[in-house]
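for the record, two folds in this file. i put them one after another cuz i was lazy. first one right below, seq on top, structure tokens after. the second one comes after a little note so u can tell where it starts
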Amino acid sequence: MLLQRIFPSMYMAPDSAPAESRKATLYLLRCIFLMGIRTPPRRFFAIYCLWSFALNLSSTFYQPIGFLTGYISHLSEFSPGEFLTSLQVAFNAWSCSAKVLIVWSLVKRFDQANAILDELDKRLLVSSERARSHCATARSNRIFFVYMTVYVVYATSTAVVAALMGVPSFQNYYPWLDWRASRWQFWLQSGLEYFAMLGACFQDVCVDCYPVNYMLPLRAHMAIFRERLRRLGKDPEEKPEQRYKKLIDCIKHHQVILSYCDVLRPLVGGTIFVQFLVVGMVLGFTIINIVMFANFGSRIAAFSFMCCIMLETTPFCILCNYLTDDCYQLADALFESNWIEQDRFYKKIVLQFLQTLQKPIVFMAGNIFSISVATNLTAMKFSFSVFTLVKQMNIAEKLSKSTKFEHEAAPI
């Protein structure tokens, strides 16, 4: 199969193959390299620096400024639907730039996390354990391409609908370029905006999908570790020294898992916190646009944008809830092991270890609130507050009337 030859890590490796959990982030890290935020390779130093400069100048730095400048200089020329289409993306572009800068400053933690995954893989000796790791790797890479597809579909559908309507996608401000003056300037600005949005979507995929890509192999190793805990002390042929050694190995195994989470916490906490700040506002503007102003083509683009916004936080929040359940299941698995028939010293270590396992692994957003489905729903509920406020204050009708008045008052 051609696709399997091009992207082999999207498919499960045979059980006999050694576990390589770092491949769960293979395509993610390649795209992060293409974002231009890694150390430039010696062979292509100049080319990589030029590419990094062009991409980050247009998408990371100038695009948020272009949105704001466009509102200041041409706000009166926006229709309500065009303004909301641009505004919903503007908030997301500002948050995307902040997330890119956070990942840029902490990008070495990806390599540290992969090194810990290599250490965890060395403990996988049974074919069933390797199969679970291979399954998580393939699923992680497929999810990454799902993210990429959804984001690119949004950027392309928005550009196509805007071109059919005869306006640029977001009407950003570009010096010495007036898309209303001539046709070629219109297409030039549309192309520049599409390139910048594709770059922003490319960056957004990386900064939004990496928590999921790193969480899936963690949960696979947690499941393997759970079964290992459950088997403790159940081999009748083991000597007490061997059982004690296996218990100590499990304690060390758990410490490695905790160190993996500690490496990822600053990254995850920063990017998810930024997204929680804007998700409600962005979804609110999108709902207002869909319900009150958008035509059929704009609704398609707006719905695809809503899918992108939901993907930015929801999957990882669901996985965080699952991770909490996994932690409680670790404690249950240790309790189900054969510790009752062991000596007093063994039982004392089990008791201390059990207390440690009962503490769930929690990721915090900005060290303020926990990342969970409940927090995600609370952040998203703000979108309905925004919609209700706009509807009760009749802001939508006032915008429509003012735009209609300006068009009628414009000189012919």
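(here's the note) second protein begins now
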Amino acid sequence: MLQFPHISLCEELRQTTEKDYSSLCERQPIGRLLFRQFCETRPELRRCVKFLDAVAEYEVTPDEKRRECGQDLIEKYFNPKSDDYVPEVEEAMMAQCTEALQQEFPPSPMSPTTAHLTVCACQVRATGKMYACKKLEKKRIKKRKGESMALNEKQILEKVNSRFVVSLAYAYETKDALCLVLTLMNGGDLKFHIYHMGEAGFDETRAVFYAAEICCGLEDLHREHIVYRDLKPENILLDDHGHIRISDLGLAVHVPEEQTIKGRVGTVGYMAPEVVKNERYTFSPDWWALGCLLYEMIEGQSPFQQRKKKIKREEVERLVTEVEEEYSSKFSEDATSLCKMLLAKDPSERLGCQGGGASEVKGHPIFRSINFKRLEAGMLEAPFIPDPQAIYCKDVLDIEQFSTVKGVELEPKDESFYGKVSTGSVPIPWQNEMIETECFTELNVFYQDGTVPPDLDWRGQPSPPPKQGLLQRLFGRQVSLTTLYTSNLKYFIYSWVADVNYLIYF
């Protein structure tokens, strides 16, 4: 049974919470719920929340219905005679919104209608939610000097919260491995789907849909000043519903603002010319790799390599830097245009690298049928939905390697690195889990008369724990996950209430 610890045990965590509206009431899933519960108690705030919800709904409304939705929104919330009128919006802003709606939808007489890891599924005992557990063997990491790459991947996954990038929910360690608990992706990778599901390649509609989702994922990474640098079919995974997520961020790196970086890293055949030449860059290699991937999805082979044909690395790099790719009849005019613009040898001429970033790529005519607002909200159906009974991998060796590491011993000095990786739960994915599994609803209980329950009452301190026997002291070092979950949740609820009151009254 889930039960909260006393609030006094959680107070020290409050010092690390960001005390601003965006963090507390928008980005934090539980904070967003608590804020809405608070607004429900005040009529003037309830009306504002309804208006914000209506605006959000307008953003993801299908194009053919947006004009009607926008007019309803204006009539309901900008009309002083309406019960839902929002006086907080200035008249100048109302006029600007009305004008923008008319310009976007003018009236018309027509009425158109990796080698050192294993991955396995795991389940959180307290909530029942399923995840993928990526286990990195400690000895193998040490043998290959992979500490910095493992820590880098963990820290970047922890920072990024995107529908199109795998999410890190927990990070912990066992005696032999570091464990990253990630989004469960049961649909296999794009490499398997391109080459092992019939004729190589996809039809253009499917390839364009995946390219659009990858573009959104790259946009979310670049927004955090992260360049991915390893975009290739085997790193793009499908979930149960056929949507993709970018995975394996071991080569991703943070790009300082207004600066460039240098590094000849990536996979042969997908590295951009500037990477091959060891020149400086920011995010341009990712848009090149998207061009390579789109080409491969349509053609059924990489633009600079032939499948199952050995070509020396030097020759592949010569093709990348000097030779133009060839296009077959599988490519439409739009597909050819987009691939050529993404595969421009000069990064300054490449689509996505001319100041507009992802918006340049999204604006290409090939995406005219994609409503990106609805795509980013998860409201578009994928062109292919994996069979839940199928296993989308070539063989068992694609899943796990069974070799053991010899001649490597773990030392006490390694503990510092392990401590940096195994930091427990990650806030936003953890909060989503608490909401999805209804733990939040079960635990977020206050008395009807307004009084607080005992675990929130500062006047009563928690009872001291009973003395432990010898066996309990020997075997009781493991942290209770249930205590961890409830401690985190109660702390979040308590500190959110205090911080929102601070924002409102000061």
